[in-house]
Amino acid sequence: MDTYEAIVTRRSTRSYRPDPVEPEKLRKIIEAGRHAPSGGNSQTSHFLVVQKPEALARLIDLAEKGLARMEVREDTYASLKRCILRARQGGYVFTYHAPVLVVMANKRGYGNAMADCVAAIENMMIEANELDLGTCYINQLNWLGDDPALVEYLRSLGLAEDERVFASLAIGHADSESGLPSRTPLERRGNRVTWIG
Question: At a CB cut-off of 8 Å and minimum separation 6, what does 59 contact?
Fold first, then answer.
């Protein structure tokens, strides 16, 4: 698959098989993320690659509890509102049962922190697609970035005192008949382009 095909056929996967991701594939995905651009070539993104089932279960529990405590206001972002309401119902698994969650952190107060993390995630999603793995961009840990219990647990996993989570990425084998992620491109209804010249 060439680069353009890997980009336009990348789709979010929200149902995963429990099978572990092959170590050589996971290393390649992480290296693709590490080679993403960063502001001023700072390379300050921190990749916490969570595969341990107990750690994933603890993150899922903490995220569900943290989201359930959040307030829903009239202007709450629609996706966040859905997550809060699902968390309040119980049984909410923000990782979609993926066997790998890459938690992307960066320095607090660094102006390009979010951009650098997201550039790395995009590289990883494209590489995972090329390797026949599914991915899904995960925002819940970013929304819970100042939740004391979650921050304390992430610190026990290696998050530094001066870091904050900006995004996460679920990775795994799609729970489909073929084991492959859906690759049918979605119609582009937005992201308008204005050509000048």
Answer: 50, 95, 101, 141, 150, 153
Nearest C-alpha neighbor of 140 from the set 73, 71, 59, 58: 59
Enumerate the β-bridge partners of residue 107. 163
Q: Residue 89: inside a domain, yes or no?
A: yes
User: Which pair of tokens denotes residue 24?
Assistant: 């050589």
Is 99 a member of any domain? yes
pLDDT digits (tens, 9 = 90+) for 155-186: 999 999 999 999 999 999 999 999 899 998 88
Q: For the chain (length 197 residues), average pLDDT per consecutive 10?
A: 94 96 98 97 98 98 97 95 96 97 97 98 98 97 96 98 98 94 89 93
pLDDT score recorded for residue 145: 93
CATH number at residue 134: 3.40.109.10
Domain tally, the chain: 1
Domain that holds residue 101: 3-172
CA distance 31 to 35: 6
Backbone angles phi, psi at 101, to 5 degrees: -130, 120
Within a domain: 40: yes
Three-class DSSP category at 46: strand
Residue 181 within a domain: no
d(CA 131, CA 85): 34
Whole-model pTM above 0.70?
Answer: yes
Q: Taking Cα atoms as reference points, which of 179, 169, 128, 174 lies closest to residue 25?
A: 128
